[in-house]
Amino acid sequence: MMLFTDTHTHLYHESFVPRISELLEQASAKGIHRFVLPNIDEESIEAMLALHKLQPNKTRLLMGLHPCSVNENYQKSLEVIQSYLHHDGVIGVGEIGLDFYWDKTYIREQEDALKIQLTWALEKNMPVSLHCRNSIDRTIVLLREVLKENPPSPHFTGVFHCFTGSIEQANSIIDLGFYLGIGGVVTFKNAGVAEVIKQVSLNHLVLETDAPYLAPVPHRGKPNLPEYLNLIAEKIAEIKNCSLQEVSEKIEQNASRIFNFAQ
């Protein structure tokens, strides 16, 4: 059976909680067997921990402060979040990064929070999940700065979540030893991601839903579900003109390598 890891999903979202067992069963029936859960802020931690306690074998946790949650009190938020880095199930730092789409009020604070959290990951040799909406180039610049100041281990890596950039940006990310997180946007007409994927090896990709957000076609505009990861995998197989089995095998290796899953 082909197996897939959803490397970025908010399964602990309040809309999922009442029917989480059903959703996991539906996903499992389609070979989606592991889930990486990124944090948002202090308020989302308990729900994430509760889901991991319920499904410890299927879930891994990332602890971080989402850029859209950064405000004038971000340093206090970071103190709380950092205290959970040693919690059972936490294997990485995320969802962290920059978001220049919704609000640019706290750009300086976003950049400082990103650098602080990247330093955590480097100190602990943890993978990171990077949010970079309308900010890929700046995220790359800051990542390079932090790596220069804090030489990483050879195994330090992470994912540029919801990648929608150019081939030049993709190559810069790959050169840094990071991966491209491909989600539902790849199924959108005229999104441009497909053209980039044609030029990038499967060795540099991972799959993600970002559920309940960014549902793939034909569910665009509706809540995204864990089982829809298969639609993303099928689209990648179509773009790369290869079998779904090959997509599963190569991309699962990437997910295992990044998030330290046993294969």
What's the SSE blueprint?
Layout: E1 4-6, H1 20-29, E2 32-38, H2 45-54, E3 59-62, H3 74-82, E4 90-99, H4 107-124, E5 128-133, H5 136-149, E6 158-161, H6 167-175, E7 179-182, H7 193-198, E8 205-207, H8 229-240, H9 244-259
Parallel strand pairs: 1-2, 2-3, 3-4, 4-5, 5-6, 6-7, 7-8
The side-by-side strand order for the widest beta sheet comes to: 1-2-3-4-5-6-7-8
> In oligomeric terms, what are we looking at?
single chain
CATH architecture: Alpha-Beta Barrel
Series of H and E elements? EHEHEHEHEHEHEHEHH
CATH topology: TIM Barrel
CATH class category: Alpha Beta
The main β sheet shows up as: 8 strands, parallel
DSSP strand tally = 8
Q: Approximately what portion of the residues adopt beta-strand conformation?
A: 15-25%
First-to-last CA distance: 14 Å
Structural class: alpha/beta
Identify the CATH homologous superfamily: Metal-dependent hydrolases
Unreliable segments of 5+ consecutive residues? none
Helix content: 25-40%
Number of domains: 1
| Mean residue pLDDT | 96
- Give the radius of gyration: 17 Å
**How many alpha or pi helices?**
9
